[in-house]
Amino acid sequence: MRRKVAPDSTAMVAGGGGGGATEAEQVQLFSAIRNGEDLGPFVRRAFASGRPESLLSSLRQFARSKEAEIEDVCKAHYQDFIRAVDDLRSLLSDVDSLKSALADSNDALQSAAGPLLAALDAYLEARSIAANLAAALRAARLCSHLFALLARANEHLAADHLYLALRAVAAAERDLLPAAPHPTIRRMLLRLIPAVRAHAERKISKEFSDWMVQIRVASRHLGQIAIGRASAARQREEELRARQRQAEEQAHFRSGSTTATPTLRDHSYSLRVEEDDDWAGDDADDLAAAAAAASSDEGDPGLDLTPLYRAYHIHKTLGLEERFRCYYFENRKLQLTSDFQVSSLTPFLESHQTFFAQIAGFFIVEDRILRTGGGLIARPDVDALWETAVTKMVSVLEDQFSRMQTANHLLLIKDYVSLLGVTLHRYRYAVDPLLDVLSKHRDKYHDLLLSDCRRQVSEALAADKFEQMLMKKEYEYSMNVLSFQIQTSDITPAFPYVAPFSSSVPDLCRISRSFVEDSISFMSHGGQLDIYPIVKKYLERLLGEVLDGSILRLIESGGLGVSQAMQVAANMAVLERACDFLFRHAAQLSGIPLRIAEKGKREFPLKKSRDATVELLLGLLRKKIDDFLLLTDSISWLADSPPPNGNDYSNEVYIYLDTLVSTAQQILPIQVLRRVLQGVLSHISDKIMGLFLSDAVKRFNSNAVMGIDVDLKTFESFAENQSHLFSDSDDSGANELKLALLEARQLVNLLMSNNPENFLNAVIRERSYNKLDYKKVVAVTEKFRESSDRLFGTFGTRGAKQNPKQKSLDALIKRLKDAS
Predict the structure, then answer these.
(1) Taking CA atoms, which of 140, 266, 314, 664 is between 20 and 30 Å from 148?
(2) Helix 774-781 and helix 670-693, axial crossing angle in degrees, nearest 10
């Protein structure tokens, strides 16, 4: 059937169906309706313009046009619709038959599928129950595992096994918390796991705090043990070197020469860095010794680093590793700072060992932790702590050394500081600043030591009566003679033995040897390689300033007699040998071989006091001789006959000198005795010359000269009798002594000469009168006059009327006066 096409609305509008609306507005309205657009703007505009009827009219017109279109469409499709209805009716009959067939099929299906559906329902219900049961079993197993972990954590906590408890809690948190079967359990875990960790942290922090308290005591004990072991090792080394020195000395004396046997040790004391068999270079022995000492002492907690390592491990497990490292470092730094506090109530001499032992133990512990702590502390941190400690120790030592006025106190502290340096040097700590402080106060120590020695020397000299020392036993001889090598023979004398020196000599030797040993003790073990030149310098100061000065003051005090001065002179000879021993002893203690130390000739350090002693002895002897020469007042200068045995004073002087020599030759060295005798005889010669030149003697004759000649022969005989004392030759010693009387002898020879005028002969004067001064000759010869012709005749056979000798004397006097 052909469909009719509806007329176009625009055509309708154009045909005049608009009412009051304009054509354009109707086109727009219809277009909006066809497009399904909103008609609100059109309605508002119609009401706004006051023409709603026009809009209604347009809408009605559009509706009528659509109804017409519908009608046209219906008319166009009417035949088709009738045919469709017919088809539908035929279809309804088919549907009814199909419906009955479906009903029959449904009844058959229902009757057949009923049991299957019941079985399916039962299966689904069973499967649901099985799923629920499986979920319940999984939850039960999870809870069982969870509760087992928590029970294990409780057991570990009860047993104080914090690490195992934390591992159990961590496993529960990692494996079970995400799969918690119930919110309650989850909330429980979220509450308990942090609580367990907080408990473990509190517990281990308390243990660590207790360990921090205990480690201070343990560190001090460890430091004392380590320093004690260093001291024992040093003592063993000293004993070994002492045996070497003893063997060297024995070889030296057996050889009988100054060449020393090479020693096994040709190096000086130095800071010990080598290791011996029983003193290892690590801390194992120190810790073992400390542990052994702690086990023997129940009150000592001992050194146990387990709590520290446990705390570090627990904090690492908790993820607080860095925080614990910082906490540990800061607390140890505070401990070290508190260890630096020096009590003002206790003298540092009494507390210095505890002070340094505490610091030594602290850094031994830190070294151990550095090497075995698994990164708990780093090397830069330990170095920073050590630098702080060194700075503080240097400051304390500077302050304490500046206050000390006793050398022994300073030495005690120095020894302990050097042991501290040796101990910590083994652990690779830099101890040079500490050794520098000791070297800096070297001069002060020796000044104090010299002051102590000066006092001891003064006391020893004041207590000495300057009498020969008596030794009754061999041990006294060994202690006072052999120990200082001042013996003159290797043969042990018979006892009781009277030594050629007085009691002050061994005392001075002991004082000096103690000074050398104290000086070596201060200088050694301090990093100084060659200490002998320094020790030698201080020893020379001791001998030159202290001993020499003290003996000079003793001499200048004027309280010594002849025997005492003679004993002091004898002491000086012994002290000269003692000085050689002291320098050898210093060299040996310094590690210098004797063959090197004894090279070159060393000047006697006590030379001033030795010369002063000899001068004092000479002065006293001259004074004594002057007392005897007071007897010269009884000499008759114009005697009628010469005295047959000389004048009285000469016999007295001879007896005194003979007694003096018999005593002096037992104690005085030959050179000193020769010098003394020469001085005494020279003084006698001067006194005889003085007698002739004295204003008290106005005239003298040949008889008086002959008496003086007898006196001179007595003294010359005394000089000849001493020739056995001098070993260089039979006559040289006696000749030297006789030369001391030469001036007086030449004057007497001139006065007794038959031709005194020969003095004017230069050759004869140089040969026979070379000691005489022409002025003295004039003064003496002017006083000489012959007593009588008869007396003069006894000296020659010249004529009695003429006196050639007197004539020669007058000519000599005249020519000497003319020459002057």
Answers:
(1) 314
(2) 50
